[in-house]
Design a protein that fits this description.
With about 90 residues, the protein is α+β, with helices and mostly antiparallel strands. It has a single domain, classed as Nucleoid-associated protein YbaB-like domain (Ybab, Chain: A, 2-Layer Sandwich), CATH 3.30.1310. It is about 55% helix and about 20% strand. The chain is built from three helices and three strands; from the N terminus they run αβββαα. A three-stranded antiparallel β-sheet has the order 1-2-3. The radius of gyration is 18 Å and the shape is elongated.
Length: about 90
């Protein structure tokens, strides 16, 4: 399991909103590592719009991380089952 967590830690996943004006980067362990907001957006959008875009981008990144995390865990579980006599 620790090997899977280590591998997930090194994966980089992205979520975007507003045609890429807001981008969130996270790892496979669902930890947000970076947030980018286009400086022009900061000048033209109001706080509520920016907050909505950040939430959308973060949710998209975390959804990707969830899918990758689930696939990695299933793969690890399948690997463990293969080592049990009669199941593999």
């Amino acid at each position: 399991m620790e090997e899977v967590k280590s591998r997930l830690e090194t994966m980089t996943l992205f979520g975007e909103a507003g045609n890429g004006e807001v981008r969130v980067m996270c790892n496979g362990n669902r930890r947000i590592k970076n947030l980018y907001i286009n400086h022009q957006l900061l000048k033209t959008a109001d706080q509520e719009q920016i907050e909505e875009l950040v939430v959308v981008a973060a949710n998209r990144a975390l959804e990707q991380a969830d899918r990758v995390n689930e696939a990695e865990m299933q793969s690890a579980a399948f690997g463990l089952l293969g080592k049990i006599p009669g199941l593999g």
